Structures
1.
Amino acid sequence: MLFCENRKLIFVQIFLVFFVLQKFGTTTETVEPTTKAFVAKKIFKLLNKLENSRDLDSNTKFTAILAEFLIKQKVRFYEATRFEEQIYFKILQKLNGIIKKTDDSDYSNVYRRILDNIFQKDILLIPPTLKERHIDVHMEYDSLLPSYEELVDTGVPNATLSDVCLDAIVTLDMDNCNLRSDCMEVLTSDLPTFGYHRMHQILLLYVFMQHKCSTIYGSRAAFEILASEKCTQAYREFNVIKKLGIPLKLRDLFLEQITVCSLFGYEEFLNWRNVGLLMSWKTDNNGCGCLTEPESLTGSCDCNDHLINLALVYYINALLLL
């Protein structure tokens, strides 16, 4: 009986591989949303839309480089199934095409330097895992509700310092691991910080933790504790936005919270509930439906905005870890 059940399971997996790879996410048939095949289908839809975008910017190239890094890091430590191998290969092909398609002629020297170095040299590869109970889910958040929309724009780093520090981190090398003092202060600061400022701080910390130079500044365990503290604060804001009903103007921030903190593997952010929530969104910030249908867009719609980039990273991380 067990042998027969295993044969049935193998047959189902082979069918799903064929189904996803043949359709690349273009089918309209219903698939159970808590399966890797369904997530892969959504990933290919987003990749197809990015491929058809008329103007891929530096944010999209960063997204493609990060997604490529996440997949390669996963297969470095874990043996993939046949299903996973084929899906990962097709995703990597499309990501590589998007990276090559981006025109960096208009990038500033800082952005060009960041994209030429990030996740590409002196990388500290860590086995990715889904982590439970690293986030304090009981932290009070009701006191933030009355003034949250004002708090969203407060804290460090600002956009300029964020770019400066990201550039400083990715251009470190093992012969010169001296990170700017103001950037180290950003990573370790416990000053009140909210919204995108908090998420930029956490993203900088993630990039730093993936660089070999981070081992000179402290143990991996110490940085993991720091990351969980920062993401606990982000989870507090996550609850505020949920309490507010995830208004359209806060969706981008909400998605950035679950995407960036899921890079650390925290299951409070990376879970099937949030995957289903994201898939339920029928509109996006520009009203183009870039996260859903239609597959082919007309008029002024061009699916290369921040929301679709975040969704792509979140879905890929879900495919890798859930």
2.
Amino acid sequence: MHRRIFLFLLLTFITLLGAGCSGSKSTANNDATDKENPFKGETLNVLSWEGYQEDDWVKPFEKKYGVKINVTYAGSVDEMFAKVASGSVTFDIIFMDGGSVPRYQKMDMIQPIDMEKLKNSSNLIENLKALNDDHVILDGESYALPFTWASLPMMVNADEIKEPIDSWSALWDEKYAGKIVTLDDSSNQVAMTALLLGISDPYNLSDEELEKVKQKLIEQKPLVRSYYAGYEDGKNLMASGEGLIGYTMGPSMITDLQKQGMNIVEVIPKEGAIVWIDNAVIGKKVKNLDLVYTYLDYLISEDVQVQFVRKTGFGGVSSKAADMLTEEEKKMVHMDDPDYFKDLVYMAFPESFEKRVELWNEVKAAN
């Protein structure tokens, strides 16, 4: 009897001891995991344009770090600004065109970025970064990280227009009357026309210069087949033959038409063309800055940038990503030519959106 009690107590002790060791081991494992993954359970609030936060690259990051990327999309520059200014959501990262960065910085909505914390920043395309830095380094500090870009060139149907085109003035040439398609976009129309008129800074126009631009656009109006508002609308006008020459929303419009078998060529006019560079900026009130930097560095890594370029048709910012693309892919997004940026004019924040919208409405209403 005593022997049975002894054996029972011994077995109980061994079982409890094993459970205790197992629990200690489990706790140790959890502690190790937490140290390896300090961001587990965290959330990043990101305000972005459509297409920039796709599951292809967001989900792997969430899985690796055990975090949630909570994305809010904006449909316009004004909507984006309003969302940040309202303060209803504290955004950790905001994606915006570089021309908008000074506006946020002046209103103390964003904070400087320490490029030393982004190891992949050393792989940014040099000419692109230099052009961007001229507009996002403020008071001696960098406030934005380039993520993607595209130019706004001219498109020409080379089967129908044989003569060489090298100037925006072609969009005012009477020989193309009824075959000209151009953007229904106030600020970009004003900027392009300002370049044609020889104005060096198309985003800082005086009232007198704005009036000259308006008169030039009114002069063009009888020649225009259509002012198109959407990407597909512009492509369809060229694909149908209604348009033979036009002002594009980006090179991908041209490459899409080329894929359809059309001989559409891109022209960067001698007066220059607009380029937009979309950047990531860091919100003023961030809870986990280390996680923000980890995500930003991931987004400009060559692996993500290659996926992004192939999915969207926009230009990437990583020179290493360019090395991973095929020659055809690089050419399509102009990541094959480091000198491409020398004839491009940065899309900056204009002197007055309101004046440009009013000007454009007057152009469209003119007889």
3.
Amino acid sequence: MFVVFHFYPCRDSEPVRLLALQFIGRLLVGLPSEKKGSKFFNISVGKFKSLPEGHKKIRLHMQPIFSVISDRLFKFPQTDLLCATLLDVLLGGASPKQVLQKHNQSDSQRSSKYNSQFFLPQILCLIFRFLSGCMDATARIKIIGDIIDLLESNPLNIEALMENGWNTWLEASVKLDVLKNYNEKSRIQKETEIDEQNFIRNLYSLVLCHYVHSVKGGWQQLEETVNFLLTQCDQGGISYQSFLRDIYEDLIQRLIELSTEENIFVSQPCRDNMLYLLKLVDEMLISEIDHKLPVYYLKLLPASLFSFMVLFWLQIR
């Protein structure tokens, strides 16, 4: 099945490789674990739904396939055509623009061929590998922006990302120079760098907000993400500590905005997840102030963090 990736080493043969990628994508979408009606999550009650054992085995069997595809594809130069094809495979033959256009149309049309579901979410790992190796800041911003738009269009896409590509996203994002040099005062940042940082922060906060707000046990995904970033800090990446602090602020700001529409702090699963978020914020602040006096502690609290803490405790009383 992968012979076309192996025997066409020159760039002139890229159209053949990309057609092969699309063909393999169509074949993989047809496997039982990806058939329509096989849903991994129950969004209506905001609870995680365990995958049947058979589906887990099929997904495990597919992992070596994507590993081989990735190794073969990225032996060649990364091009815009490759990026477009990866998104095409992810969305079942549609572009992000087509998916979003269909999403904005009437409900009767949303069930058409081009919907906002990820047909092959495992391809996200390849997209994020492409992202980490992309040298064009504008192209990286475009990729992240498309992913954000797709996630905002359908909560199922967020959970498919977490299930199939979140670890790869974490690893890819911390390799980007804009995070390695995050908030370095000695550097004058270009506008594209600031834009890229904002897009990365938006993706993090969008996904984590969904898990805190809507998913039972969503604190676990938050914890794993925070632990990953703290590991980067321990390895000498001071900039990641500033980045984590901004992620907390973005996440809390999203939750505050949601709370203006309904009292989310007293309902499950949000309440338990929020308590864990407060614990993480408290640990961060204590670590940063090195156990200074409580008055000084409050002075260091960003406005959004302090407002969130007050609002949360008032609503759960």
